[in-house]
Write a structure and sequence with these properties.
This protein has a single domain, classed as 50s Ribosomal Protein L5, Chain: A (2-Layer Sandwich). 33% of the residues lie in helices and 18% in strands. It contains four helices and five strands; from the N terminus they run H-E-H-E-E-H-E-E-H. The longest helix has 18 residues. The protein starts with a helix and ends in an 8-residue tail after the last helix.
């Protein structure tokens, strides 16, 4: 299993039980799934961009993404219902922990002028979402073959009930949050 999962079991659970006074290990929040989403703005005009995004996301996570389609027509964006507008992939279990480990220790440190990920992106229910501007921070992407940079959203769905619990757990796992001023 991933080293991050071992760290969670051995260190994070004990710290969380001590800090929040949980009576059972099952009360400690855990990461249930990670959802990566790439929205392709020009995908409605060029279907090739969707294929490129699917291939790149598959290389990054090691799992085949699903193409997302528009739910309704929007004339201003020249999108019709059913047109491909992006791709997404949901990670659980071992692949999820391996991806988070690579994200924290390999990809995020490669971001230029990085000052920490924002700690204000919690949704009120304990889930955390962060955005990346560039897919090339992942070492799996061959820089010579990238035609244009593509951003993505990464959502961490946690079993915690509050933002405070989830923030503390992610911080203990090693997420490089920005320092509060």
């Amino acid at each position: 299993m991933a080293l991050l999962f071992e760290k969670y079991k051995d260190e994070v659970v004990k710290e969380m039980m001590k800090k929040f006074g949980y009576k059972s290990i099952l009360q400690v929040p855990k990461i249930q799934k990670v959802v990566l989403n790439m929205g392709i703005g020009q995908g409605s005009k060029e279907a090739r961009l969707i294929d490129v995004a699917v291939k790149e996301l598959a290389v990054i996570v090691g799992q085949k993404p699903v193409v997302t389609k528009a739910k309704k027509s929007i004339a201003g964006f020249k999108i019709r219902e059913g047109m491909p507008v992006g791709c997404k992939v949901t990670l659980r279990g071992k692949k999820m922990y391996e991806f988070i480990e690579r994200l924290i220790h390999v990809a995020i440190p490669r971001i230029r002028d990085f000052r920490g990920i924002p700690n204000s992106s919690f949704d009120g229910f304990g889930n955390y979402t962060m955005g990346l501007d560039d897919q090339t921070i992942f070492p799996e992407i061959n820089l010579d073959k990238v035609e244009h940079t593509q951003g993505m959203d990464i959502s961490f769905v946690l079993s915690g009930t509050s933002d405070e619990e989830s923030f503390e757990m992610l911080k203990l796992l090693g997420f490089p949050f920005a320092k509060s001023a």
